[in-house]
Amino acid sequence: MSIVVTGATGHLGRLVVTHLLADGVPADQIVAAGRRTETLADLAERGVRVATLDYGQPETIAVALEGAETVLLVSGSEVGQRVEQHRAVIDAAKAAGVGRLVYTSAPKADTSPLVLAPEHKATEEILRASGLTFTILRNGWYTENYLGDVQQARETGEIVGSFGDGRVASAPRDDFAAAAAVVLRTEGHDDAVYELSGDEAWGFDELAAAASEVLGRPVVYRAVSPEQRAADLAAAGLDEGTVGFVVALEGNTRDGLLAETSGDLSRLIGRPTTPLIEALRAALAEA
To answer: How far apart are alpha carbons 210 and 170 in whole angstroms?
Structure first.
C-alpha cells in the first residue's frame, strides 16, 4: 500500500513528498504523481515511485491511484474546471478502495464569502457524499503569494493595494506541506477538518516593513481604493476578469477573511509557524 501525492510537480506537492521522506516514510511507499513527471527525476532517484496524473485525463488518475491506501488531493490550479477535476480524483479513489483522501481546501470553505471558496465548498460536498474517509486541510494564505509585491517594491519602494487595514495570517508553503505530511503518515485524522493558518496575522504596513528589511531599502504600503486599484491594473494590461478577481480578493482581505489564527497549523507541525520576515527572506533567496 502507498501514499499518493497528487500535484507533486507543483510547489506544494513536491514539498509534501520531501517532508514524508524526511519524516521517515520509506521512499517505495510514496507515489509522486503529476503531469510533468520529468521534473520528478530527482525524487525517483531517491526511490520514490513516480506516476503520470493529469486531472483532465481520468484514465491517468485510475492508474496512479492503484493500490493506494492514502491519497493527497492537492487542489487544481485551473479555476472554473476544478470541481469536475476533483470529482474525477474522488471517484477514482473510491473505485480503487482508498482508505483515506486528504484534500487541500480554502479557509472556512463551506461558509466563507471568499472569492476562491465556491469550488472548494463544492469539492468538500462531493468528498463528504462519496463515503470515503477524509481529512480536509483548509489552507490559509501562503506568504509566497506576496513575493511578487516584494520583488516589485525593490524597484518602486512601495507595495500598492486596496487591502485597507486587512490582515493576513500567512505561513510559507513549507509549513503547510509539513502539516500535510503529518496528516498523511499518522492516525487520528479521520473525517477531520483543519483550519490552517500562521500564528500571527500581519497588516500591510508590517509587510512593507518586512520588505524594507529583506531588501535593504525603504518600502512603504500605499493604500488605494478598489476603484483606483482596478484602473491601475487595467492600465498595466491585465484583462477584465483578472482585474475583477484581484480586486475581489483584496476586498476579501480588507474584510478580514484571511486573518484567522486558529493554531491548527502549529499544533500539527509541533512548532510555531515561520514568521513573515523569515519566510520572505527564504522565498527571495529561492526566487
So the answer is: 14
